[in-house]
Amino acid sequence: MGIRQFNERLAAAITKSVGTMWAAYVFAAIALISLPAAISTGDPIIIVAWIAQTFLQLVLLAVIMVGQDVQSKGVQQKIDETHAASLAEFELAKAARKSHAQEIAAIKKLLLNLKGLEKDVDEISDEVQDIAEGKDSHTS
Does the pTM of the predicted model rise above 0.70? Predict the structure, then answer.
């Protein structure tokens, strides 16, 4: 395993462990350890700095990662549903195409039969015409 693969695996493991609500709870507990010292100074700048730089940064990091994970799972579910629906529509389209091909073949067969009937009707019509004119088609 190369250094790049190691770094990627390590980063993925850290991201997976930090991006949990349990990590947010641990970070909140760690941040709260220094809260009494910040409050004891009585300096509003130190208290605001503790809130912004200690508590919010530590806790919100994990909470935001959890939220992004939840959102990405929702997006992935929508992608999977769309993919499944697209495949189903594709299969329906294939079935419709096959059905249409069969219908076209049946129509072509009917047309050929009609042409044959038309030829028969023309021959019968000619024979009727010959009979009407007094010609016998069997003796010619």
Answer: no
